[in-house]
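Follow-up to my post from last week.
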Amino acid sequence: MDLAYSRDYEIFRSEVRAFLRQYWAGPNRDRAKRAEEARVFREAAIEAGYLYRSVPKIYGGSEQVVDILKGQIIREEFERVRAPREVDGVGVTLLLPTLLEHGTAEQKACFIPRTVTGEFVWAQGYSEPSAGSDLASLRTRAELKDGRWTINGQKIWSSGAHLARYMFMLARTETAAAKHAGISYLLVDLKQPGIDVRPLKQMTGGAEFCEVFFNDAWTPADWIVGERAKGWRVSRSTLKHERNFIGGVDRIAKPFERLVGLAKQARLGDAPAIEDAEIRQRLARIAGSVAALTYSSYRQTSLAARGEDPGLIQLLFKLYGSNVGHEIAQCARELMGDSFLLAPIADGARSDGIEKWNQQFMGSIAVAIAGGASNIQRNIIAERGLGLPRSVN
Amino acid sequence: MNFALSEQQQMLQSTVAAALAAGFPPQRLHSLINRRADDGAHTEFDGLELWGLPIDPKYGGAGLEMIDAALVAECVGFAAAAVPIVNHWLVAFALSHASDRDIAAKWLPQLATGKLRGTVALAEGESRWLPDDWTLRGDGGTLNGEKWFVGDVAPNGLIVVGLAGGELGLVLPDASGIGTKVLDGVDRTRSMARLRFTATPFVPLGCVADGAVRLVDAALILTAADAFGGARRLLEMTTAYLGQREQFGMRLVQFQAIKHQLANIALEVEPCRALYWYAAHAFDHRRDECSASAALAKAHICDRFLQMSRDCIELHGGIGFTWDYDAQIWLKRAMFDATIYGSARRHRERYARLVGW
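User reply:
Got it. Predicted complex:
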């Protein structure tokens, strides 16, 4: 057991640092310039082999040998100076690995390079009004006729669809087949008359996810990923990535750091809240969970680097993170005092005051729902982790 | 960067687990808690020659680290084994810090073989577990006063005693003036006594600055590891029982409500593994973080063990509440682990202070 990196890795780390010193001066104060600076920086980082390491060079990646520890060092060092990493969003985190695993050469060449640069923005089209946790019961139809797919139906909870150009979606292509066996994985251009995207206003006041209506929309016959009727299996590889993605330790470690900051800033009676015995107990309780998850991720990373199966732990990250999010919300609420009465987003802009914590208070509920709700996670832990039988009720 | 066990460490755990399973089958555990005659032997465990595991090789030990000791403690917790190994090692850790090297040179080789046993006497009742709490004075080379909840007191063994001012003293074999009152502990897999010292001679250990703190850190880490092992055992036991118990014409594990409760328990237990590993690793490699990590791991894992043991017994139904079923053994170990060396509340407050809140 050794938490230090070996000499070779420390050399790699110093190379990454030298690169960052040369190419990254920190986020520009002028917000308008940030996007262009990020684009230029990413080009250099790909050239240096630090981003899109699993993407072949012909598709715009840096095509590096898989090395989980190097990946970890890059994340740590980029994070430290707040340098842009890979483009945010489901296109990179979910579609890209799916295309690499199941896509045709044409699909890869057509979609991957411009997804990598962020030029192509994607939305996910999985859930439907009557197909949530029971996703395989989805009813949106795609029929192959006249050399193209004609799509009718409705998707929901599609994050960022109002800003996206394309969607990867699951649609029912075989009506006679059993429910999991009749689904295909399609790519669709959202900018067409047969598609209507309507943002859904969320309880936080923001509007990040959408309903998407398909009314004789179409997509080319060869914009199908994997074989026809095999879409369920294709999408599973995507969901696996999403579980890791949402369960990232940063997603609880960072809010917890901010919570400690809030406890130092807020006052209870005449003293800073952090001096209150009960608040210290609550913070330390959460700290135990954050530490357990953080060190478990070290273990998971080490086992993965060795090519060993980390087992049960990797099935726990999503639910564990959601639960810690709830605890942070409860603790923050006590620290917020009367600010709990104020809206986190007023007149379309996020607040800078303590009331901004109402965003976390509500947002942490969304984390427990998105990407497989907590009760679905419990099924997964019980069935795949503990080997219990599949539920009948 | 490698936060995973080596082959040797995996081997150590599987060997110890097998020896303890052979030496402490459920019949023997029930025999212990029913106070039936027990020869106190742990032959299979003795055969592994682990008494000197953390002791410097120059004194005849194996020179392994806290993580290795903690991996063994996890196995002890899993088996609920009545082997006095943790208290013995705590003495070894304390003597290793003695500034008087003659003491180390004299006693550590004997501890390393296991021919001489040792234990620690720290608590003074009323939750006075930690160096700042100790009041026992060693005036004029003798002790006068009491220590509570002392485990594994061996005839003619060494006893490390916590003294006022956070000092440590060593009571030698055959020392006079020790009255021992056996306490009826809730956890009968572990012995417990109150010691009364009356003009008992002792040797000051004159530890290098943080000797008592290191001793307490070690105790907290090994207790956390024990608790994780115990929790793992109860989860395994409960999953197995619910997998065969039928009601309403179905095995209980087929009910989603039951599956979700088991998933919630696994969710709380499994991440504790890396939490105690980290504290144990910090003991040898990240000393500045060690006390905080040890306090956090002890508080968190013992809390989880206590709650999950209640949940597991509830999931069993009536059988879980009986004296003759195995589950109560680990519930009581959870009660022991939660209390010994100080409460979760105490260690969380220490954590808060140690990280500068």
